């Protein structure tokens, strides 16, 4: 029922936004695509056809709300998978049949711009965002 197309974006939590931006821009050649106001703590970097989102620890957008990212802490907020277009009702029915809890669909920004997506958790509690692609190749 669900067919993954690609990784849309990965969200890293960080204690040092400036150092992370420098690493991904200066070392890996990404570029800053979008920044939200400082209090949101979000910088989005273009990495080929995907995005790397950097979220400042303990900011408004830090969804994990856990300890500061560290060697023993959690620094991945979530990953977003682009999936083939699917009717929302069919997707929700599929998730229900598999006993998977889900969030409501909301407009969010990703590698293809704004589009609707929802969140689920894998068996280990990692958050996965499912975002139907806008076009089919």
From TrEMBL:
Q: Which InterPro entries match?
A: Glyas_Bleomycin-R_OHBP_Dase, Glyas_Fos-R_dOase_dom, GlyoxalaseI/FosfomycinResist, VOC_core
Q: Kindly give the Pfam families that the UniProt entry links to this protein.
A: Glyoxalase (PF00903)
Domain VOC, which positions? 6-133
Q: Which domain of life is it from?
A: Bacteria
Named from the GO MF annotations, one term is: lyase activity
Q: Which UniProt keywords apply?
A: Lyase
The name of this protein is: Lactoylglutathione lyase
Species for this entry = Vibrio rumoiensis 1S-45
């Amino acid at each position: 029922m669900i067919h993954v197309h690609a990784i849309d974006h990965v969200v890293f939590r960080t204690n040092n936004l400036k150092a992370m931006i420098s690493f991904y821009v200066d070392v890996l050649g990404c570029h800053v695509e979008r920044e939200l106001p400082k209090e949101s703590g979000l910088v989005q970097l273009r990495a080929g056809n995907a995005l790397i989102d950097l979220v400042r620890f303990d900011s408004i957008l830090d969804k994990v709300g856990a300890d500061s990212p560290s060697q023993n802490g959690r620094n991945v907020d979530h990953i977003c998978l682009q999936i083939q277009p699917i009717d929302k009702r069919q997707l929700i029915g599929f998730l229900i049949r598999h006993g998977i809890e889900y969030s409501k669909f909301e407009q969010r920004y990703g590698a293809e711009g704004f589009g609707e997506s929802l969140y689920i958790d894998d068996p280990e509690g990692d958050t996965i965002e499912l975002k139907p692609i806008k076009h089919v190749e």
